[in-house]
Amino acid sequence: MLCPLCGTRRARRGCPALAKSICAVCCGTKRLVQIACPSDCTWLASAREHPPATVVRQQQHDIGFLVQFIRDFNQRQSQLFFLVTTFLVRYEPPALHPLLDNDIAEAVGALASTFETAARGVIYDHRPASALAERLTISLKAVLAEAGQGAGSVFERDAAVVLRQLEDAIRGVRALDQANRQAFLDLLRRVITKTPDAGAGVTPGQDAPGDTRLIVP
């Protein structure tokens, strides 16, 4: 029987998420990206316990790249960084409109400007140029508003710092891999594990629900 996902290779692995058999290649490449694997999947557990050497090296490279942008963060800023990046991994754009790195950079840049302005006592919403980036901005702003409820200008300054650094990180990844318009988003998917409810409604200083965390090779 052929794999129902690729239609070319033999289906040899039972997939509990899809309730059907798929090929090993689709299992390995679509796991946690296009397939919502349950935590008790034996293939997922095996991959986490014994990742290929190339995967480990890639994760080490990815984490090393991110660390240079977050190494000077305080505790609140670090928590905000993982709240925002987890949100980005979970974000579902409109059908037929994939989320690209440039959209994310526009959105976090506009939000950074909004928080910088607010920290100076002026309420003004900066808006990105593209419609998809604006949609993302609205959704992300709601998440941050909940996280920073009652924290005032201190939170606004921290959020602005995190979003600016995130904007720089996105542009840094794009400069290294210009052919891939989702290079930064792919990096996040490689280093952040998630469960369906992870990262929602997180207040800095509290643990995120679910099993969202940075992968440490």
Element order: H for helix, E for strand: EEHHHHHHHHEE
**Average pLDDT score:** 84
Query: Radius of gyration, Cα only, in angstroms?
Result: 19 Å
Number of domains: 2
- Report the sheet-strand fraction: under 5%
Concise summary:
This protein has 217 residues and is mainly alpha-helical. The protein has 2 domains: 13-49, no CATH class; 53-214, no CATH class. It has helices at residues 24-30, 42-49, 53-70, 75-90, 101-119, 131-147, 153-176, 183-191, and strands at 13-15, 20-22, 192-193, 213-214.
Q: How does the SSE layout of this entry go?
A:
Elements: E1 13-15, E2 20-22, H1 24-30, H2 42-49, H3 53-70, H4 75-90, H5 101-119, H6 131-147, H7 153-176, H8 183-191, E3 192-193, E4 213-214
Antiparallel strand pairs: 1-2, 3-4
